[in-house]
User: Fold this.
Amino acid sequence: MNEGNNMANILTTRRRLLKGAGLGAAVLAAPAIVRAAPAPVNFAFFVSTSPFMIAKGGGWVEEAAGAKVNWIEVGSGAEINTGMAAGSMDLGFGIGSSPTAAGISQAIGYEVVAMMDNIGPAEEMTVRKSANIKTPADFKGRNVAVPFGSTSHFRLLGFLKTNNLSQRDVNVLDLRGDAMMAAWTRGDIDAGYIWSPVKSKMLAAGGEVYKTYDTLEAAGYVIADLIIARTAYSTANPTAVAGILAAYGKALDAYTKSPDDASVIVGKQAGVSAEMAKADMAEYDFVPLKTQLASAWLGAPGVQGKFAGVLKGTADFLVEQKSIRAAPDVAAFAKAINTSYLAKAVG
Amino acid sequence: MRPWLATALTACALIALWLWLTLSGVVSDLFLPPPGELWDALVDLVQNGYKSRSLWEHVADSLIRVIVGFGAGAAVGTLLGLAMGYFRTIDALAAPFVEFLRPLPQLAYLVLLIIWLGIGETSKITLLFLAALPVSAVAARDGVRNVSEARIRVAQSLGASEWQIFVHVVFPSALAEIFTGARLAVGIVYGTLIASEIIAGTSGIGWMILDAGRFLRSDYVFVGILIIGFMGIALDRLLLAVETRLVHWAGR
Assistant:
């Protein structure tokens, strides 16, 4: 917004200078401001198999925002945090709950406006069949890979902690998706905690699922992908934010009604086959927008949902891990969840 | 103005600007931590380490990588360069590869090294080795080529053998350039260190900076930068000290 205004000012001053005294400056300044298009929305997103890709591909986001959209592809939630802190991103789709908890704790200045999905079993431990890993103790001395700072990392550390394993007993390695796949193929790692498509590739290449998510969720290690907005942007453009959420809701409905048709579109957008897109999406729990307003999830305006507690728990864990300096109290997280746009979008 | 005074002035001005920016609250501590926080972060790192490893382990891991990678790269590179400078055929054989490798950004072939050599220390050290090798080779070759013809003629006329000429005339004359190459190489290796620690890291100062940056822990990032910076100066000074002892005649 600020940038847009500056642009308009520069344009008017320029014209004033060029055209000189012949025309009244006031007459000229007015149409220039009216004609100035709304500032483009800086939209951070992941290329992933999510129904959101239907809304993106269909141009629904531009329509709802009423402005040009700068699509910024990111590879991690940390990049969104950095971009938001720098003020160069307005919206972030699909940021994980652990980077979000970190961002809110550091008062970067953004709010959670909705949830994209509850991750559940979609991020899970894959172990090499031949390594014969059956109990937590079998992980001792093994190389386990995970992208650091991700929701999977949070889960893995939770798994170690709940089983009294230290990060010295288990060799935890920081590997991104493609590097993890390479290390798996070479036999450098015996286990990896990650999401698909790398997870399904590892399973296909001699891996098996080592189930951790159910006990971890019960122990409070819930992870989700969220939709966030820079507070300065959302307060200035509430209608646009609600409209974009409604567009996402429409895409979600399209997926629920016909997963096969949706998978074709999503697969094309994400660059994977329709079958793969369908299989990947089936692992996620895409909570309908209306359900998100229940107190079991984000809550409604004036009603605190459970999710504030999840974010607080995540932030406390990150403090313990020394990833962030300090975490505020649960009220700060409740305040950072703003469901008013979501209520407008479904209403 | 005396040089040391100018240095002291810029340092003081920078510190004053830092104090003013952070203490007046103009800049959020997310972007630039105030001195107190930086000190706390340093004390915390010294006492408790970073992510289940002590600060010294991180420093030692990085230093070992740099020393082994640089040492091996500079040694092999220098030998290769000496041979290239002395024998035209070897130069013709090796030059295309050395010249191709030298300007190549290390990040470009990082992924290949991981696929070939795995995620352990081997790929990290090989990356540093490959960064040091071409610079040292080119420096040694140029050193040999710049040995004055007259010196070799004199040695020849005194009846020195080919080997004696190489050991007693060519090598000492090239030593000054070899050291210049080594100091250049250590700088490049140092710059490559962070890239090498991106991969499957859990240790090293470079990895610490990257990992802290992911959570915008600018206090740890700044402490890491200060440590890595002073380590770099120390390494360079060490090489310089060795050089002045060994090649005390250089430049005279």
